[in-house]
Write a structure and sequence with these properties.
Elements lengths: L2 H6 L16 E3 L5 E3 L1 E2 L10 H10 L12 H20 L6 E6 L2 H18 L12 E5 L8 H4 L3 E4 L5 H13 L3 E7 L11 H10 L3 E5 L11 H4 L3 E5 L10 E6 H6 L10 E4 L4 E3 L13 H15 L3 H20 L4 E4 L16 E6 L4 H12 L1 E2 L1 E3 L4 H6 L6 E5 L6 H17 L5 E4 L2 E4 L26
Parallel strand pairs: 3-15, 5-6, 5-7, 7-8, 8-9
Antiparallel strand pairs: 1-2, 4-10, 9-10, 11-12, 13-14, 14-17, 16-17, 18-19
Helix pairs in contact: 2-10, 3-10, 11-14, 12-14
Bound molecules: pyridoxal-5'-phosphate (PLP).
The site of pyridoxal-5'-phosphate has 13 residues, from α4.
């Protein structure tokens, strides 16, 4: 980002929106507490306060959805179905798009993969019908959620180039070669935060007779998405990254494939009629939402969508870009820190740029050790590891992983400053405590920081749950 752009950004010295846990006190290994600097929004974002209040508002009415004539049941059903409409508006869905509530992005993409599998069977792809497009094309930068479901189907991958322009050219070459049914791309990289030109990719896919699904797990919490305007066929994202951590995700898109797919969760609610020998499956969202739906998850996801939609676009942009610019500039100034990116033209390519994610490594230190140090000695929470994007991390020459700081509407400049100061102190003074690897993770020796008494796994004690850094 140029200095001129930086000058135009106002300092994000206060959160843009209040979130739950803003003033959480984090215990330090050497004693005392500091305000927790949560720089791990890309993994799971804290609840926006308004979203959490809405949960409390809905909770007294909590009852079965679609299954009861009672008052609370009817209110719950109305909340659930209205959430679908709000989410449809949030992503600018077309009138005939289907909105399906799922558990998360992974679930949504697996649901779509199941539909693609059914479609290929119905169209006789396995029998080699020459006029049937049948492959899923994806980039090597994808999160495993947008990679593993496709690997179970006919597929092809493209190694992203060092610029967005050349990556698009590579995608076009593959599309031109024919046979691509679906292009599966991330809206923003969960590793580096760089945004992909999804409207252009959609146009490209359509030009060669393919559809496109955008994994918007990272994009939706930071940028507006519009299926109608961009032509994106399917979009998937998670409530817990969208400031609504109550267990719902969503898949929105064209209904024909979704109605042709084998039900994602066969069971109550997914059927019109059942005999012992035959079933007539429901159409629309019910087909894939078997079992009792997560009404609180859907209601809070919809509330988060409403709150984000009401944000002033410039304020939102300025807040995150100012934090990002300060973090990148601050880290770049520290000798021994490397900030990683994928595309040399990310900042200049139309509709791209980066969301609130910064990826970096510290020379001479294992990423997991730096993350443990930042937490124990500075009360700063970041993510380390390979970010469920192994092909990309391996290609970037980071097989042991790197560090990721991520932020959003509840973040403030002090969070970025605390991270930079922590890294400066590490490179100047070294570690202030001893650390060991335990169950695959770096942990402080003799960790006596205690969890709240209702969270029994005190760190450092036998049986503490190991965290995954994949
Ligand atoms: N896609 C991207 C880009 C992600 O960052 C993530 C989670 O980190 C996922 C998919 C999977 O999301 P979830 O764990 O909510 O299913």
């Amino acid at each position: 980002m140029s200095t001129a752009v930086l000058d135009h950004l106002q300092l994000a010295d206060a959160p843009l929106l209040p979130v739950v846990g803003q003033e959480l006190a984090a215990p330090l290994i050497q004693g005392g507490h500091v305000r927790y600097a949560n720089l791990d929004y890309a993994a799971s974002a804290p609840a926006i306060e308004e979203v959490a209040s809405h949960l409390n508002e809905v909770l007294p009415y909590y009852a079965s959805v679609h299954r009861g004539a009672g008052f609370a049941s009817q209110v719950s059903t109305s909340v659930y179905e209205n959430a679908r409409k709000i989410v449809a508006n949030f992503v600018g869905a077309r009138d005939d798009d289907t909105v399906i509530f799922t558990r998360n992005t992974t679930d949504s993409l697996n649901l779509l993969a199941g539909c693609v599998e059914s479609l290929l069977k119905q169209r006789g792809y396995a029998e080699g019908r020459s006029n049937v497009h049948g492959e899923v094309l994806y980039l090597d930068i994808e999160h495993h959620a947008n990679l593993l479901p496709w690997q179970a189907l006919p597929h092809r991958s493209v190694v992203a180039a060092s610029s967005i322009a050349s990556t698009l050219a590579r995608v076009e070459t593959q599309l031109r070669a024919g046979n691509v049914l679906l292009l599966a791309v991330t809206g923003a990289s969960n590793v580096t935060g760089e945004v992909l030109p999804v409207a252009e990719l959609a146009a490209l896919a359509h030009r060669y007779g393919a559809r496109i699904v955008v994994d918007a797990a990272q994009l939706a919490p930071h940028r507006r998405i519009n299926l109608f305007d961009t032509g994106i066929d399917y979009v998937a994202f998670s409530g817990h990254k969208l400031y609504a951590p109550f267990g719902a995700g969503v898949l929105v898109g064209r209904s024909d494939w979704l109605d042709a797919g084998h039900p994602h969760l066969a069971g109550g609610g997914a059927v019109k009629d059942v005999r012992l020998e035959s079933i007539i499956w429901a159409q629309g969202p019910a087909r894939h939402e078997g079992g009792t739906p997560n009404v609180l998850g859907a209601a809070t996801l919809a509330k988060a969508a409403t709150v984000l939609s009401a944000l002033d676009a410039d304020d939102w942009h300025n807040h995150e870009q100012s934090l990002r610019a300060h973090l990148v500039a601050g880290l770049n100034e520290v000798d021994g820190v490397t900030v990683h990116s994928l595309f040399e033209d990310a900042d200049t390519y139309p509709e791209c740029g980066s969301i609130g994610v910064v990826n970096f490594s510290v020379t001479g230190y294992d990423a997991g050790l730096v993350a443990a140090y930042l937490s124990a000695e500075h009360g700063v929470g970041v993510r380390d590891g390979k970010f469920c994007a192994h092909p990309l991390l391996n290609r970037l020459g980071l097989p042991a992983g790197s560090l990721r700081a991520s932020f959003g509407v509840g973040s403030q400049l002090e969070d970025a400053r605390r991270l930079i100061a922590g890294i400066q102190a590490l490179l100047r003074d070294g570690l202030g405590w001893d650390y060991v690897v335990d169950a695959g993770r770096w942990v402080p020796v003799n960790d006596n920081r205690s969890y709240p008494q209702w969270a029994p796994n005190t760190p450092g004690t036998a049986g503490a749950a190991p965290c995954s850094t994949d």
